[in-house]
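Following up on my earlier thread - several people asked me to post the actual chain instead of describing it. Fair enough. Here it is, all 230 residues.
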Amino acid sequence: MESDHYERHFVARVGWLRAAVLGANDGIVSTASLIVGVAAASDRSAVLVAGMAGLAAGALSMAAGEYVSVSSQADTERADTERERAEIEADPAGELHALALIYQQRGLDPALATQVAEALHARDPLHAHLRDELGFSEHTEARPLLAAGASAASFAFGAALPMATAALVPATDIAVWVTALSLIFLAALGAVGARTGGAPVLRAVIRVTFWGAVAMAVTALVGRLFGTLV
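Reply from S.P.:
Thanks for posting it. Predicted structure:
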């Protein structure tokens, strides 16, 4: 009889969700902060030019940063995989014993731990060691291009929100409108990210709006104090 049991987990979304939420959050906060700071000392045209420059530079920077960092993770994973493959080929008995010890430490009695290790070694020893010894998982595997694309696209989307606000509201009230709506955008982003990842919504909303408000307040203060583009 087939089981209808199904559990919903969110770990498979970790790879792209982290990059997307980070990109959108950074896009909103950095662009809104830039606009608020510039609006304190400049007219609408200068605000929009600065915002567009910030959007383009930020999206490219996020993509490059994510690609480089996740590529480094992928390089480490490949190196560890090859090292583990060589160790299994050089000393299969020793690696089998090491795997059995891992299962013993997780609560299996020695005989059962050895039986499980032998069964897994007979099928795919490398996969067993990567998963249970090194903690590798297909759900958290490094994907540089996916992370870079998610970061760039989400940053551009996030930055477009305060940009659109600055273009549509009265020029004399740009800073107020951008600040208020950006905090709303951040709260919505925090809620969506938390729901997508299965995390508590309220905590995520408070965290993202608080730090967004701090960033915009500091930038606005700098713009007013120095009267220059920031």
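The radius of gyration is 25 Å. That should answer part of your original question.
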